[in-house]
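Translate sequence into structure tokens.
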Amino acid sequence: MGWYLEVLKKYAVFSGRARRQEYWMFVLINTVIVLILALIDSQIGLMSETGYGILSGIYSLAILIPGLAVTVRRLHDTDRSGMWYLIAFVPVIGGFALLYFCVLEGNAGTNQYGENPKAA
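Result follows.
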């Protein structure tokens, strides 16, 4: 839970680097929260006719910027610009390419985006 809170503390910080553990723990906890909220939405009847729940929708909007920021910092850890995030909008292969970049180990030592977060 500490990694999730650390990402929220850096709400809109797009500079620096994020370790794989920071990124993936955020993704894991975020996914669990969304699933729980979707379950609550369906149980108390807050699902819209499109299939989206009100609670999970509000949460997703609130977490949009921190999620984008931690992804950009994760790309920085692999010595890529945050603009590589836009590859996710390429149909079919874009999401897989972004996933691949997020799975890669970060550069050892300092890169143009800052110190190695593992060393800190």
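Note: Residues 22 and 102 are 11 Å apart (CA to CA).
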